[in-house]
From TrEMBL:
Matching Gene3D superfamilies: NAD(P)-binding Rossmann-like Domain
Superkingdom per UniProt: Bacteria
Pfam families to which the protein is assigned, alphabetical: DUF1731, Epimerase
UniProt organism field: Streptomyces mooreae
The protein's name in its UniProt record: TIGR01777 family oxidoreductase
């Protein structure tokens, strides 16, 4: 297949590009700064010569968006919103104008669309969309607004010949440097991988190879469209998540951190505590109903596998 990946130069794009190229697909990445073979320039806002790559393709997987690992200043929040809505809109325009549109458009979304909650898991049918939870910082609602506007941009695109799926993905755990697993593992190895603010908040995750398999599944399953959760079936509280990660690497202790320590740490890392403190309890209702089977459904086994691959890569280099 010819697969076009707008925003495919980042963490998730690296995972998909590696796997889909290895499976002998032709992969074209749209990026603002092309440097490698198979990369085509676009700006994520306006139509241009890049739309020729979409016309005649089989699949489009749009991942573009300003990184969420930043301070949530008004300017950064606006850039997070605009880069997602604009890129989804213009991808939709390119598909709508194509003489031979792709058969499926997978649009990245996020598990962050669901409410901060502890009491029950969120699947697509019964899950609670966030934005009005009591007792959480007001700006958390904006992340939900971004997710909703992002999905709306895809829904509103008039692409009758193309099936549309919104990927409500949890954190994708891969052994690559700079990814979320790398950051969490580094903290654990420094002895800082303990509970944050009590650690009761749920952490939803998906192993990189299951993420790729779920994407392939959604490409093939022409009966599935709309929002789909991409998350392992067993999200767990942050303190248990970090305990399993420490055990997988062999780190005996993880210092607990209070909310204020987390604020300081996030400030030092130019990141935001919402990523640490929001309870994301998301489960893959539709994938499981459709018969998708996870290879890495439990965190301990997934963490062991990721640690083994990290160690293998380091030994190799
Ligand atoms: N990583 C996860 O675990 C995870 C989980 C759920 C959802 N997501 C979402 O999935 C998407 C991909 O995640 P990722 O971790 O691969 O993100 P990433 O590493 O930050 O990569 C996103 C890509 O978007 C492009 N981009 C950034 N700002 C842009 C802008 N203003 N206009 C157009 N393109 C822009 C960049 O490509 P160029 O600089 O090459 O143009 C970048 O490589 C993101 O939207 C993220 O929010 C990620």
């Amino acid at each position: 297949m010819k697969i076009v990946i707008p925003g495919g130069t980042g963490q998730v794009g690296t995972i998909l590009r590696r796997a889909l190229s290895a499976a002998s697909h032709e992969v074209v990445v749209l990026t603002r700064r092309p440097v490698r073979d198979g990369e085509v320039q676009w700006d994520g806002v306006t139509r241009g010569p890049w739309t020729a790559a979409v016309d005649g393709s089989d699949v489009v997987i749009n991942l573009a968006g300003r990184s969420v690992s930043c301070r949530y200043t008004p300017a950064n929040l606006q850039a997070m919103m605009d880069s997602r809505v604009d890129s989804a809109r213009v991808v939709g325009e390119a598909i709508a104008a194509a003489a031979r549109p792709p058969r499926v458009w997978l649009q990245m979304s996020t598990a962050t669309v669901y409410a901060h909650r502890f009491d029950a898991p969120n699947d697509e049918a019964r899950g609670v969309v966030g934005g009005s939870e009591p007792g959480v910082p007001g700006y958390w609602a904006y992340s939900v607004e971004i997710a909703k506007a992002w999905e709306r941009a895809q829904e509103q695109a008039e692409t009758p010949g193309t099936r549309k799926v919104a990927l409500r993905s949890a954190m994708v755990m891969s052994p690559d440097r700079g990814g979320v697993f790398d950051v969490l593992l580094r903290l654990a190895r420094l002895g800082l991988g303990g509970p944050v603010a009590g650690g009761a908040q749920y952490l939803s995750w998906i192993h990189d190879l299951d993420f790729v398999r779920a994407v392939e599944f959604l490409v093939e399953r022409s009966d599935l469209s709309g929002p789909v959760n991409l998350a392992a079936p067993a999200p767990l509280p942050q303190r248990a998540f970090m305990r399993e990660l420490r055990a997988a690497w062999g780190v005996p202790v993880g210092l607990p951190a209070t909310k204020w320590m987390a604020e300081l740490g996030a400030f030092a890392m130019r990141s935001d505590t919402e990523l640490l403190l929001k309870s994301r309890r998301v489960v893959p209702g539709r994938l499981l109903d459709a018969g998708f089977a996870f290879d890495h459904g439990e965190w301990r086994g997934a963490a062991d596998d990721l640690v083994r691959r990290v160690r293998g890569a380091r030994a190799g280099s």
